[in-house]
Amino acid sequence: QVQLVESGGGSVQPGGSLRLSCAAPGIMFNLYNLGWYRQAPGNQREVVATIGRYGNTNYTDSVKGRFTISRDNVKNMVYLQMNALKPEDTAVYYCSANYKYTYWGQGTQVTVSS
Fold this sequence. Notes:
Layout: E1 5-7, E2 10-12, E3 18-23, E4 33-39, E5 46-51, E6 57-59, E7 67-72, E8 77-82, E9 91-98, E10 102-104, E11 108-112
Parallel strand pairs: 2-11
Antiparallel strand pairs: 1-3, 3-8, 4-5, 4-9, 5-6, 7-8, 9-10, 9-11
């Protein structure tokens, strides 16, 4: 059973930064498309950023220019650097890995509040 493990969430003031990390042991990591999603209370889970096998990235419009997704195929890690955080970024953030099947992490809470 593959389990992704997120870390790096927390509470931060508006304008602050956080870096989320996700470990993905036990899979052929370089084959997978990776992503970060988030779910705020009362909302559906939405995609934040994705990075493909060859490093191609995509971002939802609301985070472009503020968030950066990256991957380390040696360490089996995917990261989300979040800068200039806003209260509307508050959510539980999940990482995912997709190839022939999609694996999910348990989520990490990000709270942006003054």
